Amino acid sequence: MSPLISASSVTVTRDNKNILDNVSLDVGVRDFITILGPNGAGKSMLLKCLMGFFKPESGKIDKKAQLRIGYVPQQFTSEQTMPITVERFLQLRKNVPMGDIIAVATETNIETLLQKPLHILSGGERQRILLARSLIGDPEVLVLDEPAQNLDISGQLAFYKLLEKIYTTRALSILMVSHDLHMVMATTKQVICLFHHICCSGEPQVVTRDPEFVSLFGHDMAEMMAVYQHGHNHTHSGHSHD
Amino acid sequence: MIELFIIKALIAGVIVALVAGFMGCFVVWRRMAYFGDSLAHSALLGIALGVMLNISHNLAVMISSICFAAFLVWLQRKKVFATDTLLGILAHAALAVGVITITLLEQRIDLHGYLFGDILTVGNEQLWWLGIGGGFVIIVLFLNWSSLVLMTIHEDLAMAENVRVARLEILLMFLMTIVVAVSIKIVGILLIASMLVIAPAAARQLARSPEVMAIIACLIGTISVVSGIYFSFELDTPSGPTIVATLAACFAVLFPLSNFYRKT
CA-CA distance, B105 to B111, in Å (whole number)? Predict the structure, then answer.
């Protein structure tokens, strides 16, 4: 099947430095891809190019016609000065019946927050709200930019669990940028290591053994990943026996 | 029998209150107060140019404000100084040059009226400017309302949903130049920013949605303008300061409510 989003040889240059250097990447149906990389590796820029709000200097981005993309952005601090309830925020610019709003609210476990003002919510609640908003309109691809950044460990865990549930229950593909290596390894199907260019990519367990991954994140990290991997395989096989 | 000039003043004041109510919400949400204040300061240079070229003051102020805003955006993109530093330089430089120019012109110009507003001498031409300019601002804000609210909450999210964020930012600046140009006569150069900020800030305490905040801001503005005009007429005080003092009183009354409404 042809990919939903396809980037070929994308290059972005800033101040004579290549932020993205000849990056090619396909997001296919039911893919779950995580982009890893140190700070300033060009991860967010790659997402911006793929989403189409930034035009790369060279290379091209192809998308399936009328592709429905749901986007969960990086940070989100809501100003006190703007009075707005969660429900109203979810409806902004979305012409959907109330039933749809309630459905995604239930799916993301925010139905009790709908009447609350946006600015009093915790970081974890806000990320779930952004996730809920991205699901309105039944997206074919979810694009997430470090969605669990600034959450504490239990918040991160809850968020990735929810994301995994959404991936299993909905017929969508996921493309995510993340720093949370340990969580990522347990949920994602494919990892792409980015440091301006694509260093290595593949299944998580394969990538952690790649010398490029080791040189980018260090031996300790690679070994730690192997441990997380191990734990994950167990829980997963447990599920399939159910 | 109410005098005609009072009726004109009331009409002008109510239009300014409505425009400021809607525009002011975005000024508060997007922290544009200093930008508005600077535009108003630079307007004096526009007025001086208007006198020199013998064109409408409203038009002259709009042209000078647009140049000011364009120059500001150009300097911002250089990313050498923070915006408030740039505004501090540009606004007061323009004000200084404006005062010097007006002095050198040696024409009878009511500087006091421009600085503090003179609503009781509003003429028909000014009413037309206010009605058309103010109506335009409100209609444009209304048409782009949800996009503007969304991009104020989260810019990247708005971009992902095809909101043309950069274009709307420029649009807001443009609307601001109109607001400044048409309301100088009413509240005065030095007080336009407070006219834009106080009513929405007071309304914030009572509102649970962006639209309700704007509507309450319009109501508070209208009440303050009408009672401000009354006091200005009765006490023979300048209209701008009297209106702003009334607005500030409204804010002071409503502010304690923020304790009750903090969670909303």
Answer: 12
Contact status of A88 with chain B (Cβ, < 8 Å)? yes
pTM of the complete model beyond 0.80: yes
Nearest CA in chain B to A120: B263
What separation in angstroms does the CA of A238 have from each of A162, B58, B78? Answer: 19, 75, 58
Residue A209 is classified by DSSP as T
Q: A173-177 and A141-145: which strand pairing? A: parallel
Residues B30-40 pLDDT 10s: 999 999 999 99
Question: Using CB atoms within 10 A of its CB, is residue A22 exposed (0-12), middle (13-18) or buried (19+)?
Answer: middle
Closest chain A C-alpha to B264 CA, distance in angstroms: 6
Contact B32, B207 (CB under 8 A): no
SS3 A37: coil
The phi, psi pair for B16, rounded to 5°, reads -60, -40
**Which tokens go with A158?**
């809850």
User: Average pLDDT in the B230-259 region?
Assistant: 88
What is the distance between the alpha carbons of residues A193 and A202, in angstroms, rounded to a whole number? Answer: 9
Split at pLDDT 50, 70, 90, the class of A241 is very low
Indicate the SS3 state at residue A192: strand
- Whether the per-residue pLDDT at B161 is higher than 60: the answer is yes
Instruction: Give the CA dihedral A17, A22, A26, A27, nearest 10 degrees.
Output: 0
Contact (CB<8Å) A71/B213: no
Instruction: Answer yes or no: is pLDDT of A142 > 50.
Output: yes
Q: Is residue A149 within 8 angstroms of chain B, CB to CB? A: no
Segment holding B244, helix H or strand E: helix B239-254
Q: Are B98 and B48 in contact (CB under 8 A)?
A: yes
What DSSP string runs through B227-240?
HHHHHHHHHT--HH
Nearest-CA distance A74 → chain B (Å) = 8
Pairing of the two strands A17-27 and A5-14: antiparallel
Is B27's Cβ below 8 Å from some Cβ in A?
no
Which residue among A73, A74, A83 places its CB closest to the CB of B213? A83
- The ipTM estimated for the assembled molecules is 0.85
Say how far apart CA B236 and CA B170 lie, in whole Å: 40
For chain B, say whether A2 makes contact (Cβ under 8 Å): no
